Amino acid sequence: MIRSNSTRPSSQAGSAYVIVIFVLLLLTIFGLSLVYVTQTERQIGDNVRTETKNFFAADAGIDASVAMLLTRNQYEGFTVDLLTSPNDQSVARYDVETNRITPVLSQPCALCDVSTTSMDPPPMKVNHDTEVRAIKRLGNLQLAQKRIGVQVELQPRQTTADALYDGPLDYGP
Q: What is the pLDDT, as a whole number, of residue 161?
């Protein structure tokens, strides 16, 4: 009796089905791991973005403290509320809290850009110390914060207009 090739031994029946199920299981595990890695990377990116925004908000607070000192002679701290959307409370806001800017060291400034006569006391450069905190909030919930402490040296100088022109300055039409 001759056997035909159309009949299969019973030991191989259904093996393709098992292999396909196994491959699908591996692809599913691979796809889920990619979703998990992508979600983790997105969260890391959001955290870096929030940290960067907080850093620059605190840095702007330092600039504002120095500007208030130079323009208004204000040493006291203040708080600024930076709302990205004033009418929408579901959007995060940044509160920038500046501490008092304190002079810590005063020294004669031999190289400052201020012309003095020999009878005048030498101009002084002053080091100031301050700290600024930026807080990201959503409603009453604090999401993140960044605190920066800095020392700033301020030197006296003549304004460019005073150095170049001795007459009155007219800003009118």
A: 47
